Amino acid sequence: MITYVIPTRDRHAALARTLDAIASLGPHEAEVIVTDNASADAVSTPRSLTSGVPVRTLRLDRNLAAAARNHAAHAADPRSAWLIMLDDDSWPASLGHLDAIRNVAPDVAAIAAEIFLTPRPDGSTPREDGGLPEVFIGCGAAIRADLFRELGGYDPAFEYYAEEYDLAARMILRGCRIAFDRRFRVIHDKTTAGRDFNRIVRNLVRNNCWTAQRYAPEAVRNAEIERHIARYRVIAAKESANGGFDLGMADLATSLAAQPRTPMTPDQWDRFTGLAACREALDAQFGDRPPRTVAIVAPGKHEWAIRQALAERYTPLVADPPRAEAALIGTLSPGPMLDAAEAGARRPGLLWPWLITDGTEENGQSRT
Question: 0.70 exceeded by the pTM?
Answer without folding.
Answer: yes
